[in-house]
Specification:
By secondary structure, the protein is an alpha/beta fold. It folds into 2 domains: 192 residues, 3-Layer(aba) Sandwich (Rossmann fold); 187 residues, P-loop containing nucleotide triphosphate hydrolases (Rossmann fold). The protein is built from 13 helices and 16 strands. The strands form 4 sheets. Strands 1, 2, 3, 4, 5, 6 and 7 form a 7-stranded mixed β-sheet that branches. Helix 2 packs parallel to helix 3 and helix 5 crosses helix 6. The longest helix has 35 residues. It is globular, with a radius of gyration of 22 Å.
């Protein structure tokens, strides 16, 4: 059996400044190198060691492969069939200056062909399929790292998922990794690996940096719905409320807090609380907020008061182009399809407890540790929330 890790390269300056790269040979920037170091450290901590490394010949992919695997540059096999899509006259152009047909193409390439002068999707499908067939024929065994690029990897994932649309929409941030196996000539479905690419090692991203990452993702959404609704889920103490506030300051977007949807007394049964993700009144959030927003009807918040155990009066939600729903359980399965972007915010256990003690005091922190955190972890594990979200940040 061969275990394969498919990886996108780290950040380049053109990624940071939002310019089309294509087959231009752009090197990693300092952030991209830190992302690659962190991804390599995380894989090593998981016990992953690579027996072979294959890369696109472009330097941003080669350097990422070298940093992540520790393999000498001259020992890395290069394959032009996994180079990035050729964007022709649009390479080097700022996203802000791209013609409308480029965004139409990226939003639905199945029905809108690449603008003139670019490599076509059929051509990209053909060469990435050749790569997969060569790898299938070789079936080298052991563990193989393959480093390529955003659009090329989306097409590769489409082949492997046997579903072009799903592959095209899978999350592919810089240094994102998917794992699959090749056994007896058959590829398994790829699964996203939590390598924490947003973490830069000893210098975690600030709230402002995280906000910019989320805003960049929002700007590139082509969901065809208004308003865009973004969920920020994650572990308590990870900074979800702080991140939502930063996004609101930046954009003026409305923010909905999951704390306002604490389960009502009749919902707090032993049977319900034993079910992953049921420590929240997701039914009321769906009925009063998310469905009305989608249907163009009046949406309102009625905050739950834990002291009086009463639901407060209705407060209309200001309609803004983007609306944030922040808090644990915001990505509950019953709510998942209502969102256009889902963000998972993580935190290490020590920092988590330090923040909760500072925020809630020692007695409440113990209650979080013994009661609320286990319920969150049950939900995260059962639903695979961290792996499924579009962005994973710490």
């Amino acid at each position: 059996m061969t275990t394969i890790y498919l990886m996108r390269h780290g950040e380049t300056e053109w990624n940071r400044t939002e310019r089309m790269q294509g087959q231009q040979d752009c090197p990693l920037n300092d952030m991209g190198r830190r992302q690659a170091v962190r991804a390599g450290e995380r894989l090593a901590a998981l016990g992953v060691r690579f027996d072979a490394v294959i890369s696109s010949p472009l330097c941003r992919a080669l350097e990422t492969a070298h940093i992540v695997s520790g393999t000498d540059m001259d020992a890395i096999a290069t394959d032009p069939d996994i180079m990035e899509m050729g964007f022709g006259p649009y390479e080097g152009v700022s996203f802000a200056d791209l013609p409308a047909e480029m965004f139409t193409f990226f939003g639905d390439p199945e029905h809108y062909p690449a603008p003139e002068g670019m490599e076509t999707i059929p051509r990209l499908k053909e060469r990435t399929a050749r790569f997969l067939e060569r790898l299938r024929a070789a079936d080298p065994g052991g563990t193989v790292l393959v480093v390529a690029h955003g659009v090329a990897l989306r097409v590769l994932l489409g082949h492997l998922m046997d579903d072009w649309v799903t592959g095209w929409k899978m999350p592919l941030e810089n240094c994102c990794i998917y794992r699959l196996t090749l056994q007896e000539g058959t590829y398994s479905r790829p699964e996203k690996v939590e390598t924490n690419p947003g973490d830069t090692g000893n210098n975690p991203l600030s709230i402002a940096e995280k906000a910019q990452i989320v805003l960049k993702k929002i700007r590139h959404l082509n969901a065809g719905r208004w308003p865009l609704i973004v969920a920020i889920d994650g572990r308590c103490g990870a900074g979800k409320t702080t991140l939502a506030a930063a996004l609101s300051r930046e954009t003026g977007c409305s923010v909905i807090h999951m704390d306002d949807y604490f389960p009502q007394p009749f919902q707090r049964t032993a049977e319900r609380l034993a079910t992953p993700g049921e420590n929240v009144d997701h039914e009321r959030l769906l009925a009063e907020v998310l469905r009305p927003l989608r249907d163009g009807e009046r949406a309102f918040v009625r905050p739950y008061d834990c002291q009086s155990q009463q639901i407060g009066p209705a407060q209309d939600i200001p309609l803004t182009p983007v609306i944030i729903v922040e808090g644990s359980y915001s990505c509950h399965p019953s709510l998942w399809d209502e969102y256009d972007l889902r963000v998972f915010l993580d935190v290490d256990p020590t920092t988590q407890m330090d923040r909760i003690r500072a925020r809630n005091g020692a007695a409440k922190a113990e209650e979080f540790r013994s009661r609320w955190i286990p319920l969150e972890e049950l939900y995260f594990a059962a639903e695979g929330i961290a792996k499924r979200c579009d962005l994973y940040l710490t």
